[in-house]
Amino acid sequence: ADNDDENEDEDEDEHATDTTNTSETDATSPPISVDEPTGGLTAGLDPVLQEANGTWIAWGDGDADFDVTNQRDCVRVPPGDEDYTLRRIDLSEEAVDAYYRGFSNRVLWPLCHGFAELVDERPNDLEWYRTVNERFAAAVADHASDESVVWLQDYHFALAPRMIRQAIPDSASIAQFWHIPWPAPATFDYCPAGEEVLEGLLGNDLLGFHVERYANAFLDCVRRFLPDATVDHEQGTIQYEGQITRVVATPMGVDAESYDQHAHDADADQLLSLFDRYDIPRNSAIGLGVDRLDYTKGIPERLTALERFFAENPSWHGDFTFIQKATPSRTEIPAYARHGDLVRSEVDRINRRFGTDDWQPIVYTEDYVEHDDLCALYRHADVMIVSPLIDGMNLVAQEYVAASVDADGTLLLSDRAGAHERLSSHALTIDPTDVQGFATAIDDALSMPPQERTTRMKALRSNVFDGDIADWMATQFDLLRRVHEGADSSNSA
Ligand code: ADP
């Protein structure tokens, strides 16, 4: 599958539904090639689909090595060991623009992240969002049987659950994980077709968020905008039109073992070659940021804090270098293009202010970083800065911890990331908009005694390893099973 979350360019989001117990076998399969995703949700789903012999339904982005235009849109994968069916939904450029770059990422993304002022509703986007959700729902109906469990991923499918509910047997179960935040009612009020979005999601038997705050905000929105719904905050249940939806908070983890292993393999030579590639003085301490170039990630605020730090701490000039790896994302959307320009110009300005012939305070790169290099950077970064203005979870923070095999780095973490709920006790918490507090935290991290760094990092590592992606998957499927068996009438998660 090529919709992994570590793509080198844009469209990193996951767009997939899966059903188990497919009744369909494949059409003739042309030869296909497979890139194994490293870590992340897609890597976690793959073995589950293999075990369930299910069907993975995903939007094809045109790179797939099989012909989706000729009804040959189902293949059995992986090649040579065909365990499950991959069904690609071929979307036209017009559909992608309106559904993905339109309603999904100009409306739902900014709205759910609390950027109501960036909501940009274009005339046909909602209609295309409905159409694409219908196409996925129809595809699910093709594959689903009485025993099926349907699991949808993320905000690209807000309307599909209700459509699927109407199209498949009653005894099948529908669940969804919403990987981004959910806003308070005052913000959700700006959502075009907001009631339809809520009704769509209430087609699910189970609806998951990363943290309680978002789950509670969803319940608040249903209570406010669907007065006929019965909302039980304590149980986390909603009854609407004869259907019960269970709302849970289950924070997602990363493939900690894999990051640990790759980081172990990243030797000093690999790091030195990265220093050479980016012209970093060999004795420099390293700060690191790894983000999609997205206005939610707080990159300008981070640069402002770094500028304050360098202004106040000339002794670190030449001895501390901040590497910002930024991955361009959704660049056709004006808010993203403007944001990219702002980040690049701020980097240039700060480097002109403090840089010398031998040293630049900020090394900024939009190049794709190979997984091994990413792990080497994680392992050797003295300070990792994760400073989103808001983030559903933030996997980068957890990846850094998993890759910190020497336990000698410090994590600076925004209190607005979902990841903060599991890492707050031993990270240095920052408010990304408090310039002085942020700059002081960078100084604190760099001057922290080694013993304290190690103690903090070891505690963080045990949190990340205890709640890894396998654990999350197991929780999801346990909840799904209980919902499916109808045995899940009370608490948990
Ligand atoms: P989001 O899903 O909003 O982009 P996350 O932090 O949750 O934010 O996930 C980002 C994922 O993308 C992480 O798994 C991270 O390792 C990966 N990633 C980001 N930039 C790069 C890059 N340049 N090279 C490789 N992987 C990257």
Q: Secondary-structure blueprint of this entry?
A:
Layout: E1 16-19, H1 40-52, E2 55-60, E3 74-77, E4 84-90, H2 93-112, H3 125-143, E5 149-153, H4 160-167, E6 173-177, H5 185-188, H6 194-201, E7 206-209, H7 212-225, E8 230-232, E9 237-240, E10 243-249, H8 256-265, H9 268-277, E11 285-292, H10 299-312, E12 320-327, H11 334-354, E13 362-365, H12 371-380, E14 383-386, H13 395-403, E15 410-414, H14 420-423, E16 428-430, H15 435-446, H16 450-466, H17 469-484
Parallel strand pairs: 2-4, 5-6, 6-7, 7-10, 11-12, 11-14, 12-13, 14-15, 15-16
Antiparallel strand pairs: 1-2, 1-5, 3-4, 8-9, 9-10
Helix pairs in contact: 2-3, 3-4, 8-12, 8-13, 10-11, 10-15, 12-13
The chain binds adenosine-5'-diphosphate.
Adenosine-5'-diphosphate binds at residues 5-6, 12, 40, 290, 292, 325, 327, 368-369, 374, 393-396, 399.
Ligand kinds: adenosine-5'-diphosphate
Derived from helix and strand composition plus strand pairing, the structural class reads: alpha/beta
Distance between the termini: 30 Å
Give the DSSP E fraction (strand runs of 2 or more residues): 15-25%
- The number of E-state strands comes to 16
Question: Which consecutive residue ranges, at least 5 long each, have pLDDT under 50?
Answer: 1-14, 20-27, 64-71, 487-493
Sheet of most strands:
10 strands, mixed
Number of helices: 17
Instruction: Note the overall shape.
Output: globular
What average pLDDT do the residues reach?
Answer: 90
Q: How large is the radius of gyration?
A: 23 Å
Strand order of the largest sheet: 3-4-2-1-5-6-7-10-9-8
**Helix proportion of residues, in percent?**
40-55%
